[in-house]
Specification:
This protein is an alpha/beta fold and 362 residues long. It is 40% helix and 13% strand. The protein is built from 14 helices and 13 strands. It has helices at 2-14, 18-30, 64-73, 96-99, 116-121, 137-148, 162-173, 176-200, 227-232, 253-259, 285-288, 312-322, 331-343, 349-355, and strands at 40-43, 49-52, 59-61, 80-81, 103-104, 126-131, 151-156, 206-211, 217-218, 234-235, 249-250, 263-266, 292-294. Strands 8, 9, 10, 11, 12 and 13 form a six-stranded mixed β-sheet that branches. Helix 12 (312-322) packs antiparallel against helix 13. The relative contact order is 0.11.
Length: 362
């Protein structure tokens, strides 16, 4: 029912800007096919046949997950933002100055922060949504498209199929060569992680991912954001009716003591720096034995959110610290390759050291 109420609110809000939306959509219907452009039909993962009748020059992401992908494959085509760009991203995104000034409209699906008027004002040709298929999403996409005049496209992207998702995105945007490089990188990293974890077998470490000021929010085992950590260690945070939010689920210190994890990942801005001096946390096995780290964050969190392709970095990093005997790759080399391929920036030794300053056991 929540998403139905949101759709009604969107309809009321957009009555003020309907004429703008109509103007934005009409040229796409009436303009002749440009010379030298070969029209094509793209079938998205909801089965919609989308006719591309002109060169794509203006696209927007539906939110943070899709935005991570577009920053990697087609930042030059972006005309709006589904997620704000923070200052800590500047050194890792070459076109940051332009991109950070684009219209911010918020998350298109499943959130309350969408500014429909701002989205319509971008005059984008496509809204690109990527991620998990969820109940109500198709209806919301259809409503967004109807109200703004902007065609909406959905590409399913989950941890085990990012290679295929990237190829589809490349096909849609005419960036097949770049997409193939990115897809192959993801598939190689994912397959190697599966092989490592098969060798680890039943000897997986017991751990949690803690965030928030005092580390008293955890990423629950049932959350989509937990895919990577569930794969790499036994996620002890089994919580009934868990929230799906990236901010995690609140717990108390007593619960953490009952779990008594052997390994803890702290989110950025949490209690990592002072946890060893905290009377309660210092009794936890992971802290007492120095088996805790902080997830690298820039320009996106490596481990949990958004649940996009940057999480493959954690599939390199976490096995290398938890099960080094099975990892024969150079972590810095692999991370540097990702930043070059997905962000277009070559990491210096100093940048790598800063990114991973708290990513290893002390």
């Amino acid at each position: 029912m929540k998403h139905i109420k949101k759709l009604i609110a969107m309809l009321l809000a957009l009555s003020l800007v309907f004429s703008l939306a109509a103007c934005g959509s009409q040229p796409q219907q009436s303009e002749p096919v440009e010379e030298g452009f070969e029209p094509y039909t793209f079938v998205d993962d909801l089965g919609h046949e989308i006719e591309i009748t002109e060169e794509l020059t203006a696209i927007v992401p539906s939110g943070q997950l899709a935005q991570v992908m577009l920053l990697g494959i087609a930042p030059d085509l972006m005309v709006g933002l589904g997620g704000k760009l923070s200052d800590n991203m500047a050194e890792y995104i070459p076109d940051y100055d332009r991109l950070s000034q684009l219209t911010y409209f918020g998350t298109v699906l499943g959130a309350a922060d969408l500014d429909v008027e701002a989205l319509a004002s971008t005059n984008a040709q496509l809204v690109i949504d990527m991620g998990y298929t969820k109940t109500g999403y198709e209806e919301e996409l259809a409503t967004t498209q109807e109200l703004t005049g902007i065609t909406c496209v959905f590409i399913e992207a989950e941890l085990d199929n990012y290679g295929e998702a990237i190829r589809k995105l490349g096909q849609l945007l005419g960036r097949e060569e770049k997409a193939e490089e990115m897809a192959l990188w993801c598939e190689e990293v994912y397959d190697r992680a599966l092989d490592i974890m098969e060798q680890v077998g039943d000897n997986k470490v017991n751990g949690i991912y803690a965030l928030g000021d005092g580390g008293l929010n955890v990423i629950a085992e049932s959350q989509s954001q937990a895919e990577v950590i569930n794969l790499v260690f036994n996620n002890l945070a089994v919580i009934e009716n868990a929230s799906g939010k990236g901010s995690g689920n609140p717990v108390n210190m007593e619960q953490i003591a009952l779990w008594n994890p052997d390994f803890v990942i702290f989110g950025a801005g949490s209690i990592y720096d002072t946890v060893a001096e905290d009377a309660a946390w210092s009794q936890i096995s992971a802290i007492a034995n120095g088996k805790y780290v902080e997830s690298p964050e820039s320009p996106h969190n490596w481990t949990v959110a958004p649940p996009a392709c940057q999480r493959y970095l954690a599939l390199l990093w976490l096995p290398s610290i938890l099960y080094p005997e099975y990892c024969d790759y150079d972590l810095q080399e692999e991370v540097t390759e990702y930043y070059e391929l997905f962000y277009g920036v070559t990491l210096t030794d100093e940048q790598y050291a800063a990114l991973t300053a708290n990513a290893f056991f002390k």
